[in-house]
Design a protein that fits this description.
The chain is α+β, with helices and mostly antiparallel strands. It is built from four helices and twelve strands. The protein has one domain. Strands 1-9-10-12 form a four-stranded mixed sheet, covered by helices on one side. A four-stranded antiparallel sheet has the order 2-11-8-6.
């Protein structure tokens, strides 16, 4: 079982990290999820994920987040955009596995035609998530994830959570300052099903 200190840290981090998925149900969201696609949807987009068993910021922009109260409280944004070389220079990473590859992912992005959306959350330790699609407009970004059990040989505790950061390459250059609405949907349906649900209204519109 996790120690009281770790449990307290997890509870506090859960309140600070945005877009946290619940333990049951088809989905959870940090804002209203649109009933119809906006028209800008990337299925199975290029992305890079970082995961760490402690509830700490894995990636940030600007100054590195500092901890207070015996490292149980972190004040940082759970999401942000990287829209150009100047933004890349402001991004920092925790010393975790995959951080160098995440930096390479940012460096390899063509910011004349692409934007990177960074989303951080907590995930139940016994589960993993797969990014299915990202949907965006000039003022809104929505993500969809499939949630599945990790491999049986992965040791985990049912009441523990890991920190996860996903860097998503959106195939459009836009001004992040115009974005004021965010949402994230997670559920047990696989990506093939979740993506088909999004394609269906689009196909119906095309036939009209």
């Amino acid at each position: 079982m996790p120690s009281p200190t770790r449990r307290d840290a997890l509870r506090v981090a859960a309140a600070l990290l945005t877009g946290v998925a619940g333990c049951s149900g088809e989905s959870s969201s940090s804002s209203s999820y649109p009933s119809e696609p906006t028209g800008n949807v990337a299925f199975d987009p290029e992305s890079h994920r970082l995961r760490n068993p402690e509830p700490i910021p894995l990636v940030w922009t600007g100054e590195r987040p500092t901890a207070t109260d015996d490292e149980s409280h972190y004040h940082f944004s759970g999401r942000f955009f990287v829209a150009g070389a100047a933004d890349v220079s402001e991004v920092g990473f925790a010393d975790v596995s995959g951080a160098d590859a995440a930096r390479d992912f940012l460096d390899a992005t063509d910011y004349d035609s692409e934007t990177v959306y960074v989303e951080q959350s907590l995930v139940d330790e016994c589960f993993t998530t797969t990014l299915c699609h990202v949907e965006w407009s000039e003022s809104d970004v929505q993500t969809s994830y499939a949630r599945t059990y990790r491999d049986a040989d992965v040791a985990c505790e049912t009441d523990a959570r890991d920190a996860v950061a996903t860097l998503i390459r959106i195939p459009e250059a836009f001004d992040p300052r115009e974005v004021n609405s965010y949402g994230s949907s997670r559920g047990t349906a696989p990506c093939s099903v979740r993506n088909d649900r999004r394609r269906r209204p689009r196909q119906e519109d095309e036939r009209r």
